[in-house]
Structures are given as C-alpha cells and as structure tokens.
Amino acid sequence: MSATDTQTRELTCGGAFNEALHQLMAEDPDIFVAGEDVGGVGGVFGGFAGLQDAHGAMRAVDTPISEQAIIGLGIGAAVTGLRPVVDLMFMDFALVSMDQIANQAAKLKYMFGGKAKLPMTITTAGGAGLSAAAQHSQSLEAMLCHVPGLKVVMPSTPHDIKGLLVASVRDDNPTIFVQNKRLFGMSGPVPEELYEIPLGQANVVREGADVTVVAYSRMLHESMAAAERLAGEGIDCEVIDLRTVLPLDTETVAASARKTNRVVIVHEAVRFAGLGAEIAAEIQESCFDYLDAPVGRVGAPFTPVPFSPSLEAEYVPSPKRIAEGIRATVGRPVPGA
Predict the structure, then answer these.
(1) Closest by alpha carbon to 139, among 269, 233, 50, 248?
(2) For domain 3-189, is the CATH number 1.20.120.80?
(3) What sign has the CA pseudo-torsion 302, 247, 48, 1?
(4) Which of 11, 59, 128, 129 is placed for a possible disulfide with 55 were both Cys, Cβ 3.0 to 4.6 Å?
C-alpha cells in the first residue's frame, strides 16, 4: 500500500478498534481477549468480531456475567506474564468491579515494590445518546482518575483509537480504554500498519487566539462544531483533544492557556465534581497570572442520564450549549440578543 493509500483509507471507530486487536494478537501470542459475548458474538458493539475465528477460542474467551470475575481473570493472567484485554461492555459496569480495579489492579505494582508488571487493558463503552437509560449511559472517568495506579484513555477519532489502543495493550500498567458509544460508526483516515500514539499526550486539533477549549471523546466533535459556529462571530477558539485523561497532559493545556488567556473545559460527565474541576484547578495553579477570566466548565446537569431521547438530547452538552459557555468566558453576548 502506498503512502497516499494509507492516508486516504478510512475506517469507522469500531473498525479501527477491531483492526488494532487483530493485528496485535497476530503479533503477540500472549495477547488474548475475554469478556461477555466477545467470542462467538464478537462483542455487543462488534469490536471483537472475527477474533475467535482468526485466533482460536482460547484467545477470544466468552465469560460469565460477572464483572468482578472478568477483571480478576485479567489481573491473574497479567501477573503471570500474559497481556489480557478484558471487556466490561458498559462503563457503568466498572462500578460492579471497582474493588478489583481500584484495590487490586491499581495497587499491585505498589504492593510488590515496583517489581511486578500488570499489562492489562480494560475496554469499555461510555456516554449517552443511545437511550440506554441511567445504568448504561454514564461517563465515570472522574471516579477512575481518582485512583493512583491506573491509566485512563478516552479517544475521539478512528486514527487515535487504533494508535492509543496499541499503546494501551503494550503498556505494562492497568489501562482503561473508554470508547464513546455514539462514535462507533464515525469514519476517518487510519493507517494500515500498527502504530502507537503515546499515552498522556494531548493534541491541539484547532489553533486559535481568543480562548482554549479543552475536550475529549465525543465532546471534541461537539466542541469543534461550537468553535466553527463561533468563528462566524469573531471568536477564535483553540481546541485541545486530551485523548488520555490519566495521565493528563497539563503542559499542553497550560501552554495554550498562557497563549489565549481564557479556558473552557467541556465533558459529557456531570459538571459537579467532574474532571473539568481538576483541570480548572491545575490551570489556576500554573497559569493564574495569565488568565483574563475564570476558567469555564460545560458538562451535564447533576442528574441521572434520562431514558427519553428528547431529555437525553438536552442532558448531553450540545454545540449550542458549549458555544454559550465559551461566549460567557470570552465576555461576548449572543448575537442579536
């Protein structure tokens, strides 16, 4: 395949995830996947399709409906030298297995004085937008980021999904890889070969001068739409995709804050005690003298995710609501108001 073909070839987010797993498993016999319906069915969202046929039933393992057991299986396999990818299906189910995640996986390296490795990747799907109701639609990354010892990855494009998944699976630490359910069908250019995007490295997706907008996962696309809308009003937004939320690339965010002097943080999770609060605090600590306005935050209201499609659409931050938050931080009124 030529360089031009590589640049123009497109995959969906789901396809990029699936291709990365196929290529990783072909490269490394120590990699296997396990979880509910990942084998015969190929995953509830199709991300594990064909793995059992291509690599055998012992490397694409269907498990009982027990999240504690799934994570426990992954921990045990990882400490013995394998490189498991274990799936929790929905991000909400991380709460069922939180003891294994927070008290076992995250602590093991510390408990063994840094001599142990735990190369386990936990894959899951988060976010609202499919009318899956309050127990299957949450964004719980702030809870996971509060646990030392974990890494948390939340990509937004097919290209980043493949590169960040490769980096996650090759990492020797427990990593939680969260895809947004509304992005599975979104297409974009993806190189055919295996490649890594370093964990903890944000991406400046749009250069701007008036305000920095920090986002990740689905909210990157909503923020970009808001930025394009505001460009017509003379507000020039710089948009940063965090890609990895733990570790957090505070250097890239701070450099942008010093450049634009205003920051708005956008996430799908509830605004109260969300990741935006921590990012805002870090910006205030490192960039206080550069800020011309308080750091703004846009997030979901403090309520369970509604089941009703119309209410759910109001719950998730939209380009309109993000634009309102940016205008408030920049100090510009709504045109015609």
Answers:
(1) 269
(2) no
(3) positive
(4) 59
Mean pLDDT of 147-174: 98
State percent of the chain over pLDDT 70.
Answer: 97
DSSP helix/strand/coil, 226: helix
Cα diameter, the chain: 65
pLDDT at 332 (0 to 100): 79
Residues 6+ apart with CB under 8 A from 178: 91, 124, 125, 126, 141, 152, 153, 154, 217
Is 136 noted as a catalytic residue in this protein?
A: yes
At 301, phi and psi to the nearest 5?
-65, 160
Q: What is the pLDDT, as a whole number, of residue 333?
A: 76
**pLDDT reported for residue 7:** 59
User: Quick one: how far is CA 172 from the chain centroid?
Assistant: 19
Q: How far apart, in whole angstroms, are the C-alpha atoms of residue 77 and residue 105?
A: 12
Distance between CA atoms of residues 107 and 85, nearest Å: 19
Find the catalytic residue in 22, 55, 136, 267. Answer: 136
Give start-end residues of each CATH 3.40.50.920 domain in the chain.
203-330
